[in-house]
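dumping this here so i dont lose it
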């Protein structure tokens, strides 16, 4: 048996009317929210989107859009770090321009600055090599014999002062000498000039007092003791070569492309104190060994 429908009372009618009004009011309100959402959902500037994290909103479309922005921001962070790293120079200073340092290539000009024939003037121990000339045959100057040979140096009982140098370039070479440097003893101004032996620098440059001695063969009246112009070094005998390396033997290797083409004593023959590179030094000593092997 069907249950009879309950008749609507006045209270029910009032409730139905109220619900209808609320529903109508809700439609107007949701429409207003849609309009407001559409009006406020404008896209952010690209620069801001790259640095700001997305925020949660009530708008679904805005949430999706911000979700894409979040991915874009996350992906751009490594690139941003790379940019910051590129703007920092090798000293940790910030630079306005991004630059890449290119390694310097070793050119022939750079090599030549180190010494003759591209060789450094010093060996591994930091010592340099030289060639110093003296006259082995008697010659009288102001009543004094200026003769001095490798045998005279060998007979010396104390370090010998290499005095009497009156050439600025030769003087500068002596001032550049260090204790422990080695030098060829070269017989000059004689019948057979050439390298006679080896000596060592045992005391670095000091004032050449002979320049102030009016009786000395190499007295310099213009030399001022308050500002000494001339210097000397002290040397000791180390070795006499079994055979003189003659000047003409050295000249054989002084042609263009030769090992001794830049040997300073051959290029500046009047220079009494000259430089010798390590390569030249070793080559000249090799000539001595070759002569010994032939004998």
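and the seq i came up w/
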């Amino acid at each position: 048996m069907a249950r009879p429908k309950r008749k609507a009372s006045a209270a029910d009618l009032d409730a139905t009317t109220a619900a209808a009004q609320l529903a109508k009011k809700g439609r107007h309100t949701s429409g207003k929210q849609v309009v407001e959402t559409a009006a406020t959902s404008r896209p952010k500037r690209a620069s801001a989107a790259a640095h700001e994290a997305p925020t949660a909103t009530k708008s679904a479309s805005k949430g999706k859009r911000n979700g894409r922005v979040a991915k874009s921001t996350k992906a751009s962070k490594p690139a941003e770090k790379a940019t910051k790293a590129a703007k920092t120079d090798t000293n940790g200073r910030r630079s306005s321009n991004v630059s890449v340092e290119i390694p310097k290539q070793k050119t022939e000009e750079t090599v030549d600055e180190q010494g003759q024939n591209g060789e450094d003037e010093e060996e591994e121990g930091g010592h340099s090599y030289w060639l110093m000339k003296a006259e082995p045959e008697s010659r009288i100057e102001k009543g004094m014999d200026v003769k001095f040979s490798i045998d005279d140096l060998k007979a010396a009982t104390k370090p010998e002062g290499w005095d009497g140098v009156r050439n600025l370039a030769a003087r500068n070479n002596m001032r550049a000498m260090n204790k422990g440097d080695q030098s060829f003893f070269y017989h000059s101004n004689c019948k057979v000039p050439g390298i006679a032996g080896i000596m060592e620098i045992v005391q670095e440059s000091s004032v050449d007092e002979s320049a102030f001695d009016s009786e000395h063969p190499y007295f310099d009246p213009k030399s001022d003791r308050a500002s000494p112009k001339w210097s000397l070094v002290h040397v000791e005998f180390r070795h006499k070569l079994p055979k003189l390396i003659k000047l003409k033997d050295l000249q054989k290797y002084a042609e263009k492309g030769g090992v001794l083409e830049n040997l300073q004593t051959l290029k500046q023959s009047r220079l009494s104190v000259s430089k010798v590179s390590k390569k030249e030094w070793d080559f000249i000593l090799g000539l001595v060994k070759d002569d010994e092997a032939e004998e």
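The radius of gyration is 48 Å.
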